[in-house]
Amino acid sequence: MIDINPQRTLVRYNVRIEQEMTPEEVAEGLFPVDEAIREVARAVFDGDEDEVVESLKNAIEKGKDPLSLINNALMVGMEVVSTLYDDNMLYLPDVIISAQAMIEGIEFCKEQSGEEHEYKGKVISYVVEGDIHDIGKKIVTVLLRAKGYEVIDLGKDVPVEEVISAVKREKPLMVTGTALMTTTMSAFSDVNSRLLDSDINVPVVCGGGAVNQDFISQYALGLYCEEAADVPKIADAILKGFDIESLRKEFHKH
Ligand code: B12
């Protein structure tokens, strides 16, 4: 069957001429059907933090579970943003604004869940020395917190020494490191060797545009992770007893 929307399409001699659609119109076709969830996803898409919180309140009033709204509504809205960004229909500032709105929403859902978070474990997150790109790290941190982990966020442009002393002090189950610049990603090497020198075998989950699996696999403690959303799954696996070798088997692409 030919997929033609008569309102948007002019058919003449088998040539389909589509009227250009705005990003908002395309997004409307991608949002979930459930009205309460749709409102949340739309608010994330619009990058409107107040609207995100308002729509979450409405959804919770309608009986939706606050924590499930993180995956089923906030993340869905962000996926629509990512899809349109990949299709060059949105610009990076749109992504950043939506991500911030999503993060606000996640914090709100956590507050509303009313569940006393008994932390599943402790994680340290940081951005490598010399690098101030911290959006990916913020996403990682927020997702881990939403899944019940305590995150010691060391921030951006963090000296190697500071990472090592934080690991010694906090004894986390894992560390997440972010690097978006090829000029600074070598800081992972220093963190890896300094930890090994101190006999600390904590997995260092690394991500961000500058690094890839081959680069990170050079380091005994390194585990590469492409998608921030996978980090809580890695933490869960560590709690189940996975060591670095088995984490690589499970999470690296072969
Ligand atoms: C936004 C941005 C900035 C913002 C940063 C704001 C902030 N608070 O983070 C500002 C304007 C400040 C900035 C500054 C600079 N930037 Co800049 N910036 C970007 C840009 C456009 C987007 C990065 C971003 O945040 N994307 C959104 C996030 C959500 O996506 P992401 O990082 O890819 O994250 C995904 C995955 O990588 C992963 N992930 C990310 N982090 C982590 C962490 C873990 C643990 C895991 C598991 C996964 C993971 O999960 C995310 C989604 O699933 C990139 C270009 C690009 N397209 O990437 C350049 C880019 C990173 N910047 C670049 C440069 C050069 C700079 C500057 C040096 C420019 C200058 N001359 O001043 C300075 C840096 C100064 C410094 N010392 O750090 C270069 C780096 C080149 C290189 N390879 O070395 C890039 C690639 C642009 C380019 N093409 O040249 N930048």
TrEMBL record:
SUPFAM superfamilies assigned: Cobalamin (vitamin B12)-binding domain, Methionine synthase domain
Tree of life domain: Archaea
Family: Belongs to the methylamine corrinoid protein family.
Keyword Metal-binding: yes
All residue ranges annotated as the B12-binding domain in the record: 120-254
UniProt feature coiled coil, ranges: none
Phylogenetic lineage: Archaea, Methanobacteriati, Methanobacteriota, Stenosarchaea group, Methanomicrobia
Species of the source: Methanococcoides cohabitans
UniProt keywords, alphabetically: Cobalt, Metal-binding
Gene it is expressed from: mtaC
UniProt-recorded name of the protein: Methanol--corrinoid protein MtaC
Record flagged with keyword Protein biosynthesis: no
Annotated B12-binding N-terminal domain residues: 27-121
NCBIfam families tied to this protein: MtaC_Meth, pyl_corrinoid
InterPro entries: Cbl-bd_cap, Cobalamin-bd, Cobalamin-bd_sf, Corrinoid_p, Met_Synthase/Corrinoid, Meth_synthase_dom
